[in-house]
Amino acid sequence: MGDSIQVLIKDYKNGNKEIFLLIADKMEPLISKYVRLLYKDEKEDMHSEFVLCLLEAVNTMGYYQEEGQCIYFLSRALKNRFLELYKKSKLHYDSESVVEDEFFSKIDINQSEYEDFIFLEDLKELIRKEDGKQYDILCNIIFKDESDAVIAKKNQVSRQYVNRVRKNFYQLLKEKYFN
Q: Its domain of life (predicted)?
């Protein structure tokens, strides 16, 4: 296990196919991270998907002379596979879900920012748990960035009520992400 990724890839490319297990061991922390972040799929299957992706990446590598470039190439391949699997998983989950909201489908998400994508999905799930006026108020606060007075007038509630809904939601976010 003391060899660098670059040396292991060279050995693998020179015909020692058993070395791939050592490469997979070196990349295991990143694979485990992506398996943990996946939506609601079978963890063992997802782990196998990432190991297969790693094998494909190693086989397609043309340049493996520098350690940093090897690690970057492999981690980028795993990240791209994560984004693809996450998107498929999310589509599958949403197709089974009864709740469909046109408002959320209009939001454009940059795939290269997967952390923002996951956070946005968490926000959507938190908002969907609310009902009626609170749901409308939170959508206006988060996605339309409207003032309390405008939201209150739209929903025929007091400005203080809108502020209270905002504070309660921020407290929920604080508990979820910082505690």
A: Bacteria
Beta carbons within 8 Å of 158's beta carbon, 6+ residues apart: 152
Contact 31, 77 (CB under 8 A): no
pTM exceeds 0.70 for this model: no
Helix, strand, or coil (residue 64)? coil
Q: What is the pLDDT of residues 39-70, one digit of tens each?
A: 565 777 888 888 888 888 888 888 777 888 88
Q: How far apart are CA 47 and CA 133, in angstroms?
A: 42
Domain boundary assignment for the chain: 5-96, 102-178
User: Sign of dihedral through CA atoms 64, 66, 69, 74?
Assistant: positive
Residue 3 DSSP one-character state: S
Instruction: Please report where in the chains the tokens 């046109």 appear, as a residue.
Output: 102
CATH architecture assignment, domain 5-96: Orthogonal Bundle (1.10)
